[in-house]
Amino acid sequence: MATDVLDQIRDVLGTRLGTFLININSYAILLTMPRQARIDFPGLLHHVIVRGIEKRSIFLDDQDREEFLSRFTRLLAETETECFAWALLDTHFHLLIRPNLAKLSHFMRRLLTGYAVVFNLRHNRVGHLFQNRYKSIVCDGDAYLLELVRYIHLNPLRAEIVDDVESLANYPWCGHRELLGRTSRTIIPESKVLPLFAKRRRAARQMYHRFIVDGSDSTPANLSSGGKRASLNLDPDLDEESLFDDRILGGADFVERTLRHSDQFSTEKKGSLTDLINLVANHFGIEKSLLSQPSKKRSLTQAKAIICYVAMRQMGIKGVDIAPTLVYTPAAVSHAANRGEQIFLKEAGLMTKLETIL
User: Fold this and answer.
1) Domain around 218
2) pLDDT tens readout for residues 174-231
3) What is the pTM of this model?
4) By C-alpha distance, which of 147, 157, 166 is closest to 85?
5) Helix H segments across the chain?
6) Same domain, 293 and 160
7) Are residues 128 and 254 in the same domain?
């Protein structure tokens, strides 16, 4: 019952949410506060952090890790996204990437959804694998790229997965080993990081290694967040009274440029509920008008469940706005969205088609 109440509250609020608890008639209800929209347009450098739901492991063995990296590498090539650093831990992972053709949200949707489907099938499980909202910080790469690379590549050491820097060099699930030339993986192009240390490859690797060692001996700045405190910790020379943004790691000039461009991209028209219904109907070979009629036919209820899930959870459309079109109540839309997630995760072809409207 508490879940039903929360879903109805979400429908009324119609917003993306932060977190706090209250009690209503002895039920602990999770309410939320509005979050700022993610800054997302092609060409931005993002530090992405993805965690397992309830801090659970998202990689149970090396086969899971290989599956993830295979999918990640393939998407990098398909979308012309650049990777500068990466690290896989048991319960979360870090990526430092720059999508050049599409938005980060498109890249992450394909990466996370695809991996979750394979993981759930392989381990005979259902339900969410990741926390609902991954974290992404827009970063000033011109100023802080190398600090970010070091921060991410030292994560296995600071998480005590490896004992020391020498052990880190042999840890196979981190881009550090790649940059040292100790693996055949080529997730990070040589032209992106090593030339920032020296022209010759051998000298660049030696200087990069020394850079990592120096960082392992010092207290790290927290680069898993943006805003004033994180930016000043990284660069104390920044003006404390200048413009900062919690979604951005960088100084005032970078923040201003990023927000200005973000405003331009935010005016882009996104797909509508009608577009979604047309796409789902065509995918399943269903007459569109049947989706606006009451029915218990399995093919129709499954299609409606997918529409509810995508509309609510990925397009941000309120349940009260979806309900009349599908001849549902707002509560029924919420229930259908919960069912629709598992159905949607099995429809790989539909996921690809949705890229045109999301």
Assistant:
1) 45-265
2) 999 999 999 999 999 989 999 999 999 999 999 999 999 999 988 878 899 999 998 9
3) 0.74
4) 147
5) 2-13, 62-79, 104-122, 141-153, 155-158, 165-168, 175-179, 201-216, 227-234, 252-265, 273-284, 298-309, 319-326, 330-345, 348-354
6) no
7) yes
